[in-house]
UniProtKB/TrEMBL annotation:
<dbReference type="InterPro" id="IPR052932">
    <property type="entry name" value="OprB_Porin"/>
</dbReference>
<dbReference type="Pfam" id="PF04966">
    <property type="entry name" value="OprB"/>
</dbReference>
<dbReference type="GO" id="GO:0008643">
    <property type="term" value="P:carbohydrate transport"/>
</dbReference>
<keyword id="KW-0732">Signal</keyword>
<dbReference type="InterPro" id="IPR007049">
    <property type="entry name" value="Carb-sel_porin_OprB"/>
</dbReference>
<dbReference type="GO" id="GO:0016020">
    <property type="term" value="C:membrane"/>
</dbReference>
<comment type="similarity">
    <text>Belongs to the OprB family.</text>
</comment>
<dbReference type="GO" id="GO:0015288">
    <property type="term" value="F:porin activity"/>
</dbReference>
<feature type="signal peptide">
    <location>
        <begin position="1"/>
        <end position="25"/>
    </location>
</feature>
<protein>
    <submittedName>
        <fullName>Porin</fullName>
    </submittedName>
</protein>
<dbReference type="InterPro" id="IPR038673">
    <property type="entry name" value="OprB_sf"/>
</dbReference>
């Protein structure tokens, strides 16, 4: 998730005069990777922090984020609102290769995720509907604000990142967030981009593990335009208990991505890629269960696998249209098929604000039941940088045919707040 995997995604090089604060020398990885977040955070560094970075090659950031949601229609008797907050402390410390260009160092991110209401935003879509201890929610098979949960304290990143071949190769080894290197693009971050998972990593058609697990990922530029990214991670990992499963009950999440980019500096904006993935069966991410001879139940041992694609390109200096989708088999991904199309507008209102609009069509995984309606989802948001420290993001979503609901459709309004230090 950082100045690591795919060491090169510089939004500053892309948005130049538009968004000069967005990313200076960003890397292989998603917009939400630690190093890219540090480079794109909206606030200026304090003098002592500048000194720390220049003299010790150590940089860090703090932020607090909140998300509130309210639905016009829910499952009859269900909760119509959800809200949660997330505190994050993240940083990187470059320790070797400072003169050679093949820099290596430590990256970390710790978080505390907590809900304010009976349902967290992560539970609001459908988890409440299938969990007896929780109230019902919207009945939409999907996730809105999946990072806004009630998990409590968690370790999201603790890994070594290493550049090789003058930055054309990058690897990271340790405790990773797979969404930092799998199927990334410029608007995938749940903190600054779209809120609905349909428009984020995998589009709901990748069976993702927890977003903080032991793993290894490597990215390499084959030519000036073509690249490969591969990764393997602990599919059973639990970020609230980081080292509990890898050596005792190892199941793997593996990915391989082949892509084209206009240049390494534009790797998650002007980009076309195809991602193949597989997740071993027998984890808590399986959607169905099996009955054992003693009458107890456990998770299905069915593997999940699939193919995803993504294409995005700056048609003008500010407008980035995109089309993304995926096809999956097995009982792990939320969707058997997911197709999204939309557009991002960067520099709207001021240099560091952006707007996004997209529409998704999804075919719900048959593990949830046969005959469920296909869902149509749309989202419009405006990420407004109020000043150097505060971002406010109003958000509007419309969902047609929520699969678990007795209502035909629902509107969901949201408000996201970020305070960065």
């Amino acid at each position: 998730m950082t100045k690591t995997l795919l060491s090169s995604v510089a939004l500053a090089a892309i948005f130049a005069s538009l968004v000069p604060k967005i990313a200076i020398g960003a890397d292989f990885g998603s917009p939400d990777s630690v190093d890219n977040t540090l480079k794109t955070k909206p606030n200026p560094k304090l003098n002592w922090r500048e000194s720390l970075e220049q003299n010790q090659n150590l940089t860090f950031g703090l932020d607090y984020q909140s998300l509130g949601l309210r639905a016009s229609d829910t499952v009859t008797g269900g909760e119509n609102n959800a809200a949660a907050g997330v505190f994050r402390f993240y940083g990187s410390w470059n320790l070797v290769g400072l003169d050679s260009g093949n820099v290596g160092g430590l990256v970390w991110k710790v978080e505390h995720r907590h809900k304010y209401t009976d349902l967290s935003p992560k539970e609001f879509s459908f988890i409440g509907n299938v969990t007896p201890s929780l109230p019902d929610g919207v009945g939409y098979v999907g996730m809105i604000g999946p990072a806004y949960s009630d998990q409590g304290s968690r370790l999201t990143n603790l890994y070594w990142k290493q550049k090789l071949n003058q930055g054309r190769t990058s690897l990271m080894l340790g405790y990773l967030d797979t969404t930092d290197y799998v199927d990334t693009y410029a608007l995938a971050s749940p903190w600054t981009g779209f809120t609905n998972l349909a428009f984020s990593t995998g589009g709901g058609a990748i069976g993702l593990p927890d977003d903080g697990v032991l793993g290894l990922a490597v990215g390499h530029m084959l030519t000036d335009n073509f690249y490969l990214i591969g990764g393997v991670a602990d599919a059973n990992g639990d970020s609230s208990d980081p080292f509990s499963s890898f050596f005792d009950d190892s199941k793997l999440f593996t990915t391989l991505e082949f892509g084209w980019t206009a240049s390494q500096e534009q790797i998650y904006t002007d980009n076309v890629h195809v991602t193949a993935w597989n997740i071993d069966g027998g984890t808590r991410h399986n959607l169905s269960t099996i009955t054992l001879p003693d009458g107890s139940t456990t998770y299905s041992d069915q593997n999940g696998r699939g193919i995803n694609f993504s294409a995005s390109y700056f048609a003008t200096a500010q407008l980035m249209p995109f089309i993304r989708g995926g096809f999956s088999s097995g009982d792990v991904a939320l969707y058997d098929t997911s197709i999204s199309a939309g557009i991002g507008y960067f520099g709207l209102g001021n240099a560091t604000s952006n707007l996004g609009f997209a529409v998704n069509w999804s075919e719900v995984n048959e593990a949830f039941g046969r005959g469920l309606d296909n869902q149509i989802t749309s989202e419009l948001y405006y990420n407004w940088a109020v000043n150097d420290y505060i971002q406010v993001t109003p958000d509007l979503q419309y969902i047609k045919n929520p699969a678990f609901s007795d209502k035909d459709s629902t509107w969901i309004i949201g408000l996201r707040l970020r305070v960065a230090i």
